[in-house]
Write a structure and sequence with these properties.
The complex is a heterodimer of chains A (about 200) and B (about 80). Chain A has about 200 residues and is mainly α. Chain A has ten helices and no strands. Chain B has one domain. Chain B has four helices and no strands. The radius of gyration of chain B is 23 Å and the shape is elongated. The longest helix of chain B has 17 residues. The chains are: A mainly alpha (about 200), B mainly alpha (about 80). Chains A and B meet through helix 3, helix 4, helix 7, helix 8 and helix 10 of A and helix 1, helix 3 and helix 4 of B.
Chain lengths: ~200, ~80
């Protein structure tokens, strides 16, 4: 199992096609959190995001079985694009405004984390995270797609522009737009006290 | 010749796509331009915060996916 965990995606795909089912499970385990989070950032509904996660991997499975999969060294970006497109299609189909209550699918009291471990710092961080997620869900899809490929799949702008068939400057321009929009929702990291006066 | 840097160069620098020889010149430009400095700060902050938004799904989707695939593979045997 450890050998499988260390294998490259293309080796896992090859082994799966030779009959080792466990390899597909390793691929799902490796990429499911990013695929799921991509969907969550669009639909903001845990249950819908889980459906999209399943659909993404089932689509990938079908494409593999039909011998049509051609992104050997770029599996994660491929899965993120499928997930993002499915999520955008879902919103279009149901003409829904993203869900505001119970984001994360958590019960509201769990989200507030009221209990023995409650702290205003972690509460503030949760609020900041939710604000950022909301802001990302409001970005135009073309800008959000580049943001996710850059930060979730760790692709360079050159790779993203090649994958999407875009000019490099168009790709950078979309990212610039996304950052300018998201900037409004960031809480600047400031020092809370003068560290020269009050050293640790 | 003094090179003028843009927000695009800030992005390329963060992704490692800016030539290393331009990197320190960009740092100087950032210090001299408040607009570029604000953009660079936001880009850096997003680069560190967005990966923290990655969440784990429950176990159910994995089970469903593998059950579907096992079924499909059995049918195709």
């Amino acid at each position: 199992m450890n050998t499988l965990k260390a294998s490259a995606d293309c080796d896992l795909i090859e082994s799966f096609l030779s009959g080792n089912q466990k390899c597909f499970e390793t691929i799902v385990r490796r990429h499911q959190s990013r695929v799921y989070s991509t969907a969550m950032l669009v639909v903001r509904d845990k249950y819908v995001a889980e459906d999209i996660l399943q659909e993404t991997f089932l689509k990938f499975f079908k494409v593999l079985m039909e011998g049509k999969y051609t992104h050997q060294d770029k599996l994660l970006p491929y899965l993120l694009r499928v997930s993002h497109n499915l999520a955008v299609d879902y919103l279009r189909k149901y003409s829904r405004t993203p869900v505001i209550t119970s984001v994360n699918g958590k019960e509201i009291f769990n989200f507030l984390n009221i209990g023995e471990e409650f702290s205003f710092d972690s509460f503030d961080r949760d609020i900041e995270k939710e604000r950022l997620k909301w802001a990302i869900s409001k970005l135009p899809e073309k800008h959000r797609e580049i943001l996710l490929l850059r930060y979730f799949a760790d692709m360079s702008y050159k790779e993203i522009s090649e994958m999407l068939g875009l000019n490099l400057n168009t790709c950078l321009g979309r990212m610039r737009y996304a950052i300018k929009n998201l900037k409004k929702y960031l809480v600047p990291k400031v020092k809370r006290y003068d560290q020269n006066l009050y050293p640790k | 010749m003094i090179k003028t840097f843009t927000p695009n160069d800030v992005l390329k620098n963060l992704s490692g796509e800016l030539p290393p020889e331009d990197s320190s010149d960009l740092d100087h430009s950032i210090l001299e331009s408040s607009e570029l400095e604000a953009f660079a700060a936001a880009a850096e902050q997003l680069e560190s915060e967005i990966p923290n938004l990655i969440q784990e799904p429950g176990n159910k989707p994995l089970k469903n996916i593998m059950a579907f695939i096992e079924g499909e593979l059995k049918i195709n045997k």
